[in-house]
Each structure stands twice: as structure tokens, then as C-alpha cells.
């Protein structure tokens, strides 16, 4: 598989969108005071798009789901070598909704350190995806 393959070309479009979510999270984290809940939401979105990019690259169906554990369960059999890069983002699922609505899942208490750790995990996953595309 490579970036010149049509499936990978489409997958890289997902990676680009994930990068925009990641950048949004960084900008929000850098605000004064930091916008932690929106930053956390964009981290979850970036993780979701990276996992869906892998499904696209493999020619698999993309479920309409924000559940990162579910997406990871679909990705890992297709790309077992990526387990270490995929696993750290699977706990971000609650950030898809709890950070956007009051009291939906209770206050998650997202901290700046939580967002920085998520960004580092996203970078690792992004690099792993890009290594497969070349």
C-alpha cells in the first residue's frame, strides 16, 4: 500500500482533516485561558479521523460511530503492527460528547496535561499512519 494507491489517496484526505482537528486543539490549548473542553473534543475528532483513514486505506466499511474502541477493534486486525499507536487514543471517546454539552456525561475534568498527552498520542498515531502510506 502507498500514497499513490487510490484508497490511500482517499485515506490521506482523512489524515488531512485529522490534522486540522489537531491544529484546532493546539490553538485552543494555547488560548488564555485554555479552551480545554473544545480542545479535548478536537483531539477525539482527530483520533476518530485517523482510525477511519486506516479503514479507508484497507478498503473497509466506515461505520457511523464516534466510539474509538469500536473503530480500533476494526482497525487492529487490518493493521496489527499499529496496536501500540492505536491503543492510547481509544480512551478519548467520551470527549466527543461530554466536552460539548453540559452534564451529558458529567464533568470529565479535562486538564491541559490531558490534552497534551492526547496530542502526543495523536502524533504517534499520525506518524504510524504516514509510515504505512509511503
Which labels suit this protein?
single chain, Four Helix Bundle (Hemerythrin (Met), subunit A), mainly alpha
Protein described:
The protein is an all-alpha fold and 134 residues long. It has a single domain (6-133), classed as Up-down Bundle (Four Helix Bundle (Hemerythrin (Met), subunit A)), CATH 1.20.120. The chain is 60% helix and 0% strand. The protein contains five helices and no strands.
Task: Give me a quick take on this structure.
This protein has 134 residues and is mostly helical.
Helix content: 55-70%
Largest sheet: none
Total domain units? 1
The top-level CATH class is Mainly Alpha
CATH architecture name: Up-down Bundle
Fill in the CATH topology.
Answer: Four Helix Bundle (Hemerythrin (Met), subunit A)
| Fraction in beta strands | under 5%
